[in-house]
Amino acid sequence: MRDSSRSILLALAFLPVLLSGCAPALSPVPLATETPMPPPTPWSLVAVGDSIAVNSSMVCPGCIGFVDRYADAIVEATGHPVEVSNRSQPMLRVDALLDELKTDASRRDALANADIIIVSIAFNDTPWLRSDDPCDGPNGNQPDWSKYNSTCAAAAAESFRPKFESVFAQIVALREGKPTMLRTINRYNDWIGWTSAAGETNPPEATDATRVILDAWSAMVCEAAHANGFACADIYHAFNGPAGITPSGDLLGKDYTHPSDKGNEAIARVLADLGYAPLVP
After folding, report:
1. What is the pLDDT of residue 19?
2. Hey, is 49 helix, strand or coil?
């Protein structure tokens, strides 16, 4: 009787082991995984203005323009992708840009949908490039530097202030209060240090005459910008020093008018130094 009981007990003891060997294996419970975040929508950078921002291969072959360099700086600093639409045009003047802001629907739409806007329109309306200026009038490409002084410099700058303010104000209005990086640049001096292929140089009196003009002109551009919510990159003093009389030198290309690759890098750096508000506090 004791042996039979012992056999029954041993059989019961081994029963769970036998059953476990026959049970199907349980599949592992998969771990929860996070859904990957979609990449951020790129910021749209739109540039409007004159040939200084165009970076034509005809005047600066192989160069990377400051608009693209600035976009790269934004990406590097913020990690946010940027798409560039450079709508700058050779020889554009303030009046022509004002007309386009009223009549060019494509340009208006691009600006209205831009997160970052660069305006480069300070170059082609300075007195020596116009025939209706208050300094030497219709003197073409041969300025009479003896007629350039602080009085006509102030008059020229003030006559254009409303036009610059209108450019900036209209662009701000197109954005309808949406957070936007609004940036502009003033004008550097491309007369001081110029030498022609034949070795000709500008007369010494051009140095002070152009300085007087650009002191007033570049200050006006930045003041008009600030009054309308734009930050202004002071490339005048970046290119020509604190006194405004240092030659631009190798910051300009072979035509000694448009920025060289080094000059484009310098402009982009001055823009980047303004920070990235309001898109990045």
Report:
1. 42
2. strand
Q: Which two tokens stand for residue 194?
A: 């110029």
Distance CA 225, CA 129 (A): 22
Residue 139's Cβ-count burial label (10 Å; 0-12, 13-18, 19+) is middle
Q: Name, in order, each residue with C-beta under 8 angstroms of 266's C-beta and a sequence gap of 6 or more.
A: 235, 238, 239, 251, 259
Q: How far apart are CA 114 and CA 179, in angstroms?
A: 10
In whole angstroms, what is the distance from residue 195 CA to residue 247 CA? 11
- Comparing CA positions, the residue from 168, 159, 93 lying closest to residue 124 is 93
Output b/e per residue, 254-279; b: 16+ Cβ within 10 A. Answer: eebebbbbebbbbbbbbbbeeebeee
Q: How far apart are CA 249 and CA 259, in angstroms?
A: 10
- DSSP lists the bridge partners of residue 83 as 44
- C-alpha distances in Å from residue 182, one per residue of 124, 176, 201, 227: 21, 13, 38, 12
- Helices 94-103 + 105-112 axis angle, to 10: 90
* Coil vs helix vs strand at 122: coil
Instruction: Say whether pLDDT at 148 is over 70.
Output: yes
> Cα-flanking dihedrals φ and ψ of residue 159, to 5°?
-70, -25
Q: Give the mean pLDDT of 247-254.
A: 97
Q: Between 29 and 189, where is the model more confident?
A: 189
Q: What is the Cα 61 distance to its own chain's centre? A: 20
Residue with tokens 């554009």: 92
